[in-house]
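ok new one. same drill as before - structure tokens go in, u give me an amino acid for every spot. 279 of them this time. try not to just spam alanines like last time pls lmao
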């Protein structure tokens, strides 16, 4: 036995006591047997209680025991697993058996030290058996781990799909830009015959066709297609004309003698078509 490890010393005492319970020996026999196992020569006039006191004084002094009790009181799961927490709980509980002498107290102490999400899940079950709480905590931890793995897979899958979708538009956009560039380059060419840019249309000067409709037999000035769109603008109606009342026209007749009698009348000859009108 390593005398420097207080935990090992406590475990050794517990094992010896279990052995003594099986063989059913007296207190003196227990002390003699324990001293023999420790290879101690002085085995006379000593009982088991005295042996334990001497043993603890040497291998597990009071200051070390108080330290272990404090560790047990402050023990929480923290970042370790439930299995690791349970192992540490069992190890330190040997130094504080008086604090968990009742099963219910031991159960509550273990439950209170669990991670918050595990504690919340198990506390509603109101379990009073220590082994039951440990089993439930292990199951809840396993379920939570599987859930986290599933969510992580979903997140990676969504991220991968998103990256694939983003690559497709870029690829098609690149192809589209390349095609557009070639088309624009082909269209933006000056004709070597007429010296103008008529895009993809044939040169009408070379074919002597109408520059407007592209047909033969006339030029753009006489293009019938162009005349279809020459429509006179309707005369705008004057508001003043709208307000004037319509007046019936009147005709006045005069004779040659009447014209000679006044100085502000001009006379002459008017020809309308083939008719000659004289005063």
């Amino acid at each position: 036995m390593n005398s420097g490890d207080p935990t090992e010393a406590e475990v050794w005492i517990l094992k010896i006591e279990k052995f003594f319970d099986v063989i059913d020996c007296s207190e003196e026999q227990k002390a003699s047997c324990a001293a023999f196992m420790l290879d101690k020569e002085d085995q006379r006039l000593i009982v088991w209680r005295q042996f334990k006191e001497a043993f603890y004084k040497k291998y597990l002094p009071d200051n070390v025991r108080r330290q272990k009790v404090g560790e047990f009181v402050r023990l929480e799961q923290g970042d370790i697993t439930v299995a690791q927490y349970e192992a540490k709980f069992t190890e330190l509980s040997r130094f504080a058996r008086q604090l968990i002498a009742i099963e219910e107290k031991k159960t509550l102490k273990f439950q209170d030290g669990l991670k918050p999400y595990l504690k919340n899940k198990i506390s509603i079950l109101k379990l009073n058996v220590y082994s039951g709480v440990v089993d439930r905590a292990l199951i809840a931890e396993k379920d939570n781990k599987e859930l986290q793995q599933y969510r992580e897979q979903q997140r990676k899958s969504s991220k991968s799909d998103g990256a694939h979708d983003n690559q497709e538009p870029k690829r098609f956009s690149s192809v589209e830009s390349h095609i557009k560039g070639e088309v624009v380059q082909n269209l933006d060419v000056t004709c070597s015959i007429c010296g103008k840019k008529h895009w993809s249309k044939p040169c009408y000067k070379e074919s002597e066709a109408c520059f407007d409709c592209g047909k033969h037999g006339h030029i753009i000035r006489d293009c019938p297609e162009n005349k279809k769109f020459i429509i006179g603008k309707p005369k705008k109606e004057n508001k003043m004309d709208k307000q004037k009342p319509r007046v019936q026209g009147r005709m006045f007749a005069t004779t040659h003698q009447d014209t000679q009698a006044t100085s502000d009348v001009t006379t002459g000859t008017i020809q309308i078509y083939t008719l000659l009108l004289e005063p």
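The chain has twelve helices and two strands. and btw The CA atoms of residues 24 and 117 lie 47 Å apart.
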